[in-house]
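Let's practice the habit of predicting before peeking. Look at the sequence and jot down your guess about where helices and strands might fall. Then scroll down.
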Amino acid sequence: MAGDQDLPSRSGTVAAMSSTEDIESIASATDLLPGLLVPAPDAAFDDAAVRADGNVVTQAYAGAGSRGFVVVEAPGERLPPPLDMDVAGVEVRGRHGRFSAARGELEWVEGDRVHRVTSETLTRAELLAIAEGMVPA
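Done guessing? Here is the structure:
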């Protein structure tokens, strides 16, 4: 479809956005989720492509080559069961979380929100650094 964008994610791309009406800005996404956390600015990554589905906000960041990551924030008070058996407990922003190496996925709960940072190309340490640097939009 004309205008479709593929965004980096743990599966290679986030589903193509069907039209420019699907694309939000950080500012408009904070209307849906006040206090939305965003990564600290990093010259290695472009500005976020943002999508809001109901009360779930997805931010995708592309860098050089295939480097990129996706941040998803949604209401919730606990993590769902892990989708694989290879998860490790981690501390994220002073809270208990988990990291799945197979999925390239870091997850934690903060306040009344579930946060997920995923990447096929960034390391656990890089994902943790991104999470630690996140600030309210």
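How did you do? Residues 1-21 have pLDDT under 50 and may be disordered.
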